[in-house]
Structure prediction request, 293 residues.
Amino acid sequence: MTDPAFRAGAVAILGRPNAGKSTLLNYLLGEKLAIVSAKPQTTRSRILGIVTREHSQMLLYDTPGMHESTKALNVALNEMVAEAAQDCDLALLLVDPHLGWGEDHAELVRRLKDRNCPVSIVSTKADIGNRDASSLVEAVPTGERIWSISARSGKGVEELIAHISSLLPESPPLFPEDQISDRPMRFLVAELVREAAFDVLSQELPYALAVEVVEYDENRADLLKIRADLLVERASQKQIVIGKGGQTIKRIGIRSRHEVEKLTGSKVHLDLWVKVEPKWSKRPKRLKSLGYS
Ligand SMILES: Nc1nc2c(ncn2[C@@H]2O[C@H](COP(=O)(O)OP(=O)(O)OP(=O)(O)O)[C@@H](O)[C@H]2O)c(=O)[nH]1
Ligand SMILES: [Mg+2]
Prediction:
């Protein structure tokens, strides 16, 4: 018997905010690439994670959760979803069964099918609660198979990978085997700082915050020196991010340094500064330079 043909292609991971898209990407990679939080609308850009197996290479695009809003940031996010859907060989639509199927899901499936993009429906978080894929069966268009997974326990994930691989076109690998993303390390580091800020800050503040790595110095063999700016839109927000006696920014720093060290594999000196930049989220050019569009 000859080996099966190698297959490679692009897979868009789509779904509402909080469906579990970034968690699935990280699980498949075995690395923390995409940031995850219990707050919705965490992911702000299309992030490529590359998973290479013996007979296939999946280019997985994590995307921001799809939602309705006319703010510049949200419009940019929705455009990214549309773009990811346009360029992919296959789309995974992740649905949290505890929240159920909606007209937004149906509309997305229709749009993908119009573009001849195959779509597979994936029910997430099978490890918790009392609802699973079977609760979606009634609502989902007839005949669609629903894949049930947990990105915590790994249940169902291997079956899903086999299914994805079988639908990809025959192709040699598109990236070197050891490459896991096309994003520069600076961006991934900024994202880890943003994730720590999501954890430490409450309520709306994380949504007003952007992170930019402004210095990334690898010149010392034993220490990576990084400076990052945390951008907020108002002076009052700056005070909150800094916290009493600098306590809050210190907590963000401790948490993110730990994650940055894991990602980069080196000892890290992380210097965080909070800056007020009034309209960062409303300026398309600035969104682009921050890597959010
Ligand atoms: N128990 C359990 N929790 C999960 C699973 N997958 C994701 N979660 C949790 O669900 C929340 C949202 O996960 P994310 O991966 O950030 O969701 P997302 O779809 O990327 O969200 P956005 O980036 O905001 O669109 C986090 O608190 C995760 O820990 C799972 O399989 N099991
Ligand atoms: Mg996400």
